């Protein structure tokens, strides 16, 4: 995985908002998968192909206000956003010249929604990311080749591959790749994203998808653009999904997860994560050198579920008084030295300890080669005393006051860059 320099906006941003918005938002069914799983015994709503695409008629974006989105994301503390330009269903959210499968040509919106999003994000100072799926269940040439594997329905579905008794259509696959590359080119030329977030890199391997060639083409067009890992081995960073990795990647990474269980708008999904869990997931990512890309889905009119809004605002309310411990920081202490997360300032002279639980009247940190000159609680500035013995620093919490139920940050200032024993 190419390493993105630590000074890059991507490393310093820490929080992004992930938006799945498309015709699937009309009925609030799982994006694209609702038709893929139709007729199968699955615990989520499904639609026949016909009913799925009938959602085109309900996609109005009637209250789409990207400036209000940007204001909300800023309030959440986000520094970038990633919006679906095309999910696996193949429905483009911009006026692509390469196909009729777009909300511009087939839905009442009748216009591109990507340009206003990019403009509003940029106006608010947010970095612009665009999501794009390689897999395309609208394009007739996508199922041109035989299944590369047979042990998983994803690899044998007629939406993805040709049945064994039909000849492979190599020319069809070449047409599909030219189409995919053409759409990516359109996105870059029209919208100039800073981040291209690929997905749907199935059912074929990276060689068949010509991921390396695509990456080279993208970087030749704009060397600054960042690409995620769903490009075979040619992405710039890892994208673990829906679970904190046991071993955080050494190189650049970003966890994507959702505020409830769904990527897109799903009014029936009430399983929202409590704010303390969101704060914990976020700070665990940051402490391990990663970003969090937090998923919320606007409805077909372009509005967010109030429960999602509350979570975004709650996260921002936690970040604001603790911002110094988040943005522009670096990966903190290795696991095992402190019972919580931690981050380091870029000059490594300040260590931020992020404590989730108040287990006793002190915090302990192991492995520090020097004593901090000063220890304070970040959000209140309360000065705390410390003792050091047996190679352990003990931070006395007597003067710390009531801790923040989501997480409390302690700031340890050192005379010299921090070294570990
Ligand atoms: C999962 C979902 C897909 C979603 C993606 C985001 O792979 O199946 O629909 O777009 O996560 O990372």
Q: How do the helices and strands follow one another from N- to C-terminus? A: HEHHHEHHEHHEHEEHEHEEEEEEEE
Specify the structural class: alpha/beta
- Our Rg estimate from Cα atoms comes to 23 Å
Average pLDDT level: 96
Q: How widely separated are the two ends?
A: 30 Å
Contiguous uncertain segments of 5+ residues: none
Number of helices: 11
Bound compounds, please? alpha-D-glucopyranose
- Within the largest sheet, what's the order of strands? 5-4-3-2-1-7-6
* Spatial shape: elongated
Helix content: 10-25%
Number of DSSP E strands: 15
Q: What portion of the residues fall into strands of 2 or more residues? A: 15-25%
Largest sheet, in brief, is: 7 strands, parallel
Summarize the entry for a quick read.
This protein has 421 residues and is of the alpha/beta class.
Defining key terms:
single chain; 421 residues; alpha/beta; 7-stranded parallel sheet; 5-stranded antiparallel sheet; 15 strands; elongated; binds alpha-D-glucopyranose
């Amino acid at each position: 995985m190419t390493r993105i320099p630590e000074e890059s906006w991507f490393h310093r941003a820490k929080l992004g908002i992930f938006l799945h918005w498309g015709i699937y938002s009309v009925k609030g069914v799982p994006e694209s998968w609702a038709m893929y799983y139709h007729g199968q015994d699955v615990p989520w709503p499904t639609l026949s192909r016909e009913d799925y695409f009938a959602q085109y008629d309900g996609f109005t974006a009637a209250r789409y206000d990207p400036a209000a989105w940007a204001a909300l994301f800023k309030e959440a503390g986000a520094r970038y956003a990633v919006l679906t330009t095309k999910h696996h269903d193949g429905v483009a959210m911009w006026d692509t010249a390469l196909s009729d499968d777009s909300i511009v040509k087939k839905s009442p919106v009748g216009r591109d929604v990507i340009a206003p999003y990019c403009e509003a994000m940029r106006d608010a100072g947010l970095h612009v990311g665009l999501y794009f799926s390689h897999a395309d269940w609208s394009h007739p040439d996508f199922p041109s080749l035989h299944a590369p594997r047979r042990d998983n329905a994803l690899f044998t579905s007629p939406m993805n591959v040709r049945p064994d008794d039909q000849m492979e259509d190599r020319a069809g696959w070449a047409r599909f790749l030219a189409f995919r590359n053409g759409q990516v080119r359109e996105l870059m030329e029209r919208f100039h994203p800073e981040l291209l977030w690929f997905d749907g890199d199935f059912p074929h391997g990276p060689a068949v998808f010509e991921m390396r060639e695509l990456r080279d083409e993208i970087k030749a067009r704009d060397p600054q653009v960042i690409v995620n890992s769903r490009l075979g081995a040619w992405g710039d960073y890892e994208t673990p999904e829906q679970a904190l990795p046991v071993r955080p990647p050494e190189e650049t990474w970003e966890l994507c997860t959702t505020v409830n269980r769904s990527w897109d708008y799903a009014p029936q999904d009430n399983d929202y994560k409590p704010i303390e869990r969101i704060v914990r997931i976020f700070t665990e990512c940051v402490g391990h050198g990663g970003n969090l890309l937090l998923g919320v889905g606007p409805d077909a009119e372009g509005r967010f579920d109030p429960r999602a809004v509350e979570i975004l605002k709650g996260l921002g309310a936690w970040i604001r008084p603790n911002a110094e411990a988040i943005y522009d920081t670096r990966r903190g202490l290795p696991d095992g030295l402190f019972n919580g997360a931690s981050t380091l300032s870029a000059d490594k002279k300040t260590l931020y300890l992020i404590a989730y639980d108040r287990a006793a009247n002190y915090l302990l940190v192991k492995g520090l080669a020097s004593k901090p000159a000063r220890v304070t609680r970040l959000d209140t500035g309360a000065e705390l005393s410390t003792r050091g013995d047996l190679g352990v620093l003990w931070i006395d919490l007597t003067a710390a006051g009531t801790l923040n139920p989501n997480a409390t940050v302690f700031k340890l200032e050192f005379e010299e860059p921090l070294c570990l024993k």
